[in-house]
Structures are given as C-alpha cells and as structure tokens.
Design brief:
The chain has 192 residues and is mostly helical. It contains 10 helices and 2 strands, in the order H-H-H-H-H-H-H-E-E-H-H-H. Strands 1-2 form a two-stranded antiparallel sheet.
C-alpha cells in the first residue's frame, strides 16, 4: 500500500523558504497557518483535528505564488509542486482552496486533473476559510475580504462567478463551526 508522505513543520518551512525566497506573500502564509491552528485548537475541544497537518497545509496553501499571483492558477501551481514533491494531501489543499473548491470541469479547465477538488475534511475546509479571513497578514471579516477580492479581480469573470459560490460555502462552513464551538471564528482569527 502506498502511504502519502507526512509533511513535518520543519519541512513545510523549508519548502516555503526555498520557493518563497522571503517574498512578501509568505507573510500571509504564516498568518493563515497560525490563525488556522488557533481555530483548530478551539475545535479540538469538540472533535479530533490534525493541527499538525492543518498548520502545514495552511502554510503552503499559496506556495504556487512562487510562479504566479493569478487568483486561480497559484493553486494549480502549488498542486503541481507539492505533487511533484510527493506531498499529496497538502497538494490537494492547494487546489481545493481555490474558490473553496473546484468541480472536475473547472479543475480540468485550469490544468488540473479532471476530478473534483473540493475540501472534505475539517482541516481542508479550515484552510480556505481562514485564508478568506486574513487580508495580507491582518485579520478581517469574511464580507470585507470578499469585497476586496472582487475589487482586485474586476474583469476576471471566471473568478468572480466562482467567488459568489465560494463566499456562500465559506459563510455556511463558518456558521456550522460557530454553532459547534459557540464562538465567533472571526474573533478567534483576530486574536493574535
């Protein structure tokens, strides 16, 4: 049986350092990883969660930005890189964090394998949610971040069409988590 490679915190940071080369976008990656684990720690009071995987996946969710800052293709490039390095679980998150998930047709259109890349596990869902709650390295609200994404990507109709669906998916998932933990996810993310 072929077991996926386990990505350690040290190896995650090495990959980010090698491909990110201290570019400013890597600051966002650290902010998302730290905030995701804060939320994960609260969720862990109610159910099991793999905070080690969550941290690594969140840290590397934007690793494809070493090639492009395109709002869609950076996830594709991250998927390709981490797949090549044999970190399949984290590679999946790179692709699945795009617009809170892609169906097979959209994935194929973007250059991914023709299959669904939709976040399934709690960890896979937390990465895009927390990503949407961090503007550069600062906590923000879901509504504010989506407004900013719309403004910055005006004219990219494929992205903007998917953004409406992504916002609804993020809002629904955040509501489910908040009902479970009895706290505001936005407030947890904002507590640095």
């Amino acid at each position: 049986m072929n077991h996926p490679r386990v990505l350690t915190r040290k190896e995650s940071m090495r990959i980010l350092a090698e491909y990110g080369r201290d570019d400013s976008w890597t600051i966002h990656c650290f902010a998302v990883a730290e905030a995701a684990v804060r939320v994960g720690d609260v969720i862990a009071n109610n159910r099991p969660i793999d905070c080690s995987f969550l941290w690594s996946a969140a840290l590397l969710h934007d690793i494809g930005r070493y090639i492009t800052h395109d709002p869609l293709l950076h996830g594709v490039e991250g998927y390709k890189l981490l797949s090549m390095l044999k970190y399949e679980k984290e590679a999946y998150v790179c692709a699945a964090h795009i617009l809170f998930g892609l169906n097979a047709a959209d994935a194929y259109q973007l250059g991914l394998p023709a299959r669904d890349f939709v976040p399934r596990s709690i960890e896979e869902k937390l990465v895009p949610l927390v990503d949407y709650l961090i503007e550069y390295d600062q906590p923000t609200t879901l509504d504010s971040r989506f407004s900013s994404l719309r403004e910055r990507n005006n004219g990219n109709s494929f992205f903007l069409t998917g953004l409406d669906r992504a916002q609804e998916s993020a809002r629904q998932f955040m509501k489910e988590i908040e009902e479970e933990i009895g706290e505001s996810v936005e407030n947890i993310v904002a507590c640095q």
